[in-house]
Design a protein that fits this description.
It contains three helices and four strands. The chain is an alpha+beta fold. A two-stranded parallel ribbon has the order 1-2. The longest helix has 18 residues.
């Protein structure tokens, strides 16, 4: 298992993030290459998960046509799916992208029905 930590404590996408999306995506791409070159890894069994801002970044990975294709499935929890990184610009590497999303209806930070959260405007989870 690999547990990367976001630069300055937040992944790209949120209004409070300091790192551009392209930088965080490149970091994950480089991380995957390093892990595969250093360890015996079954590339067909690489999975991504995260919670809240990390869950939103997992959604951005799923939407990326290069890095997303290196990950077998995605499981964000309470994902903060920021529209500028996950909806209009979503270009997954495959037509069917396996995603399991966990989200509580009473979440007070990342609203299931969408709206303004602490990191900016969020789409409804069902729309995402």
């Amino acid at each position: 298992m690999v547990y990367p930590t976001a630069l300055n404590g937040s992944w790209a996408g949120a209004s409070y993030s300091t790192t551009p999306m392209a930088t965080d995506i490149k970091f994950v791409d480089d991380l995957l290459a390093e892990v595969r070159s250093t360890y015996c890894v079954d590339s067909s069994r690489i999975y991504a998960t995260g919670i809240s801002n990390g869950g939103g970044f997992v959604g951005a990975l799923a939407c990326n046509d290069k890095v997303g294709g290196q990950i077998a499935a995605f499981a964000p929890a309470a994902g903060a799916f920021y529209p500028d990184t996950n909806t209009d610009g979503c270009k997954p590497s495959r037509a069917v992208t396996p995603i399991l999303e966990f989200h509580g209806g009473n979440d007070k930070s990342v609203f299931y029905a969408g709206g303004t959260g602490s990191g900016g405007e969020l789409p409804a989870v069902s729309d995402w």
